[in-house]
């Protein structure tokens, strides 16, 4: 299946961080952030997560997000391998634990 998010609808999604991110890219985006609904084992992966809309503020380290942090993100979801939903690389954080990021 295609990895393209073209045609999918951008949406807000609320979830809880379920795994520590892999790394922060040279562009300041956090890579491989997994979030899920509280109390379930369903996870969504965000391949590159921007700190703010437009990416004007960058992450300092993977410790900027902790397990259990509640995020509201905005982006386009798609299925990369038909089993794990992912969000595209323009996805950004709207709020962390109820605090706006911008």
Summarize the structure.
Helices cover 0% and strands 45% of the residues.
Overview of the structural elements:
With 102 residues, the chain is mainly beta. It is 0% helix and 45% strand. The protein has a 5-stranded mixed barrel. A hairpin with a 5-residue loop joins strand 5 (70-79) and strand 6 (85-87). The chain is globular and about 30 Å long. It starts with 9 loop residues before the first strand and ends with a strand. The mean pLDDT is 87.
Detail the topology: elements first, then pairings.
Blueprint: E1 10-19, E2 23-24, E3 30-36, E4 43-49, E5 70-79, E6 85-87, E7 92-96, E8 99-100
Strand order of the largest sheet: 1-3-4-6-5
How far apart are the first and last residues' alpha carbons, in Å? 35 Å
Portion of residues within helices: under 10%
Order of helices and strands: EEEEEEEE
Global geometry: globular
Mean residue pLDDT: 87
DSSP E strands, number: 8
> Low-confidence parts, pLDDT < 50 over ≥5 residues?
none
Major sheet characteristics: 5 strands, mixed, barrel
Q: Taking Cα atoms only, what radius of gyration do you get, to the nearest Å? A: 12 Å
Structural class: mainly beta
Question: How much strand?
Answer: over 45%
Given the structure, what is the number of helices?
A: 0
